[in-house]
Amino acid sequence: MKKYFKITGALLIIASLTLGCNLVKPATPAVIPDQIPTQQEQKPAEAAVLESTAQAATEPVAPIAAETPAKTMIVKVYFNNPKIDPNWDTECSNVFAVEREIPYTKSVALAAINELLKGPLSAEKTQGYMSNINSGVKVQKLNIVNSVAKIDFNEQLQYQVGGSCKISAIIAQIKQTLKQFKTIKDVIISIDGESEAILQP
Q1: Residue 124 covered by a domain
Q2: Residue 65 domain-assigned?
Q3: Which domain holds residue 171?
Q4: Distance CA 23, CA 199 (A)
Q5: Alpha-carbon span 169 to 95, nearest angstrom
Q6: pLDDT tens, position by position, for the chain (201 residues)?
Q7: What is the rounded distance in angstroms from the CA atom of residue 107 to the CA atom of residue 22?
Q8: Which helix (H) or strand (E) holds 100?
Q9: Count: domains in the chain
């Protein structure tokens, strides 16, 4: 019995010593990094996605532009027409209007004259319209000052033109095409800057 108590006592002493050693052993210090990474540094890809998503959500979405039709306008051009006027060969200054649809422009008077210089279209010719203006005629200048349109053409306007009736028709076609506009009351025609000795019969 005494032997049992001795062994038990010895075991208790050993246990106490072991426990005491563990109690006095210093704890291992925690490792503290020099710099704590920020959230963006930790997850750069995720942060970039979130930032991009937030930006897209706040930016207004531009509306899709609807395709608008091109603007056009109507001008008149003047021709002789034997079918309408039985006296066209003697009353050559009698000219009649046809309408042309053209792209919108601020230079509407010039656009109308350019349509006149094209001559009658196929459908217009079928209806009897004819022009006395030579092909190849070009406008060199057009100014409108104080309700007077001063228009200058190249020499082709009077090339091989003879007879008072034909000349009257040419002048009437040009003047009436320009006078359709309320801002034009009179027209002065010139060729290469000369307005006096031109379009002579």
Answers
A1: yes
A2: no
A3: 72-191
A4: 129
A5: 8
A6: 444 444 445 444 454 444 444 444 444 444 333 343 434 444 444 444 444 444 444 445 555 555 666 799 999 999 999 999 988 888 899 999 999 999 999 999 999 999 999 999 999 999 999 999 999 999 999 999 999 999 999 999 999 988 899 999 999 999 999 999 999 999 999 999 999 889 887
A7: 104
A8: strand 96-103
A9: 1
Q: Residues 174, 184: contact at Cβ < 8 Å?
A: no
Q: Which of 80, 102, 108 is nearest to 184 (CA)?
A: 108
Angstrom distance (rounded) from CA 30 to CA 57: 44
112: tokens are: 């109308």
In-domain check, residue 1: no
Closest CA to 142 of 154, 151, 153: 151
Rounded to two decimals, the pTM is 0.66
Domain for residue 3, yes or no? no
How distant, in Å, are the alpha carbons of 130, 134, 137, 158, 199 from that of 162? 17, 12, 16, 8, 8
Rg value, the chain, Cα: 50
What Cα–Cα distance (Å) separates residue 85 from each residue in 82, 91, 131? 5, 9, 14
